[in-house]
Design goal:
The chain has a single domain (10-211), classed as Rossmann fold, CATH 3.40.50.150. It is built from ten helices and seven strands. It has helices spanning 11-16, 20-33, 48-57, 80-86, 99-112, 126-131, 146-153, 171-177, 179-184, 223-233; strands spanning 68-72, 91-96, 116-120, 135-141, 157-167, 191-195, 204-210.
């Protein structure tokens, strides 16, 4: 398959390398089914590469080799599927609550022969947290404000793991606004970084928050400490 004749920008070869054909096929699937299945809007079809695939794939520069990554609210498979294509070394799971989108994700994974797990559920659900705990990184794209993302996603990370939230131009303001909620959820101060600098015309903005502690409950105590106290009382 010739990437350029199929509409892929030349920079796609830089980002996806020898796996560019898989990225092209993913674009074809989105163009064929995206609108009908409620995955992308009509205006997005002409900018799938720049706005969705490349924008998603470049955050791979924040992920160390062979790490565990959970994509929360994966939806159409963004950023999870482009990450899986660009970085086959990742141990990647896509988490999505809507059944029809889970079906879509499973179809895409099968079609592209990607080694990726798809799980139906929400990040805040107890069974999901038990099953998918201790991730190295959690990614989220257009899911929720930082206040809610921190509460949902930080408990899924190992200590020292990082939440990578793809955001827009107001990322710094959002990080400042929700700083207290992020700290209460167990997050560090956080920082705004740009991915794909020198590769993409418009780099991807990512809010990076490290999990530094367990979340606090309403009384201000760490939740892990509160659970241990309750267990001690029952002895």
């Amino acid at each position: 398959m010739n990437a350029l004749t199929e509409g892929a920008p030349s920079v796609a070869r830089v980002v996806f390398g020898e796996r560019l054909a898989l990225a092209e096929r993913f674009v074809e699937l989105l163009r064929e089914h995206g609108i009908q299945r409620g995955l992308v809007g009509p205006r997005e079809l002409d900018r799938l590469w720049e706005r969705h695939l490349l924008n998603s794939a470049v955050i791979a520069e924040l992920l160390p080799p062979n790490c565990r990554v959970l994509d929360v609210g994966s939806g159409a498979g963004l950023p999870g599927v482009p990450l899986a294509i660009a970085r086959p070394d990742l141990n990647l799971t896509l988490l999505e609550p809507m059944a029809r989108r889970v079906t879509w994700l499973q179809e895409v994974i099968t079609e592209l022969a990607l080694t990726v797990e798809v799980v139906r559920g929400r990040a805040e659900e107890g069974p999901v947290r038990e099953r998918l705990a201790d991730q190295d990184s959690v990614t989220a794209r257009a899911v929720a404000p930082m206040e809610r993302l921190a509460k949902w996603c930080l408990p899924l990370l190992r200590p020292g793991g990082r939440l990578l939230a793809m955001k827009g131009e107001s990322a710094a303001e959002e990080l400042d606004r929700d700083a207290a909620a992020i700290a209460a959820a167990g997050g560090g101060g956080g920082e705004v970084v740009s991915c794909g600098v020198g590769v993409l015309e418009v780099p991807t903005t990512v809010v990076v928050v490290e999990r530094v502690a367990a979340a606090r409950n309403a009384s201000g105590r760490r939740r892990d400490d509160a659970r241990r106290t309750r267990k001690d009382r029952g002895r």
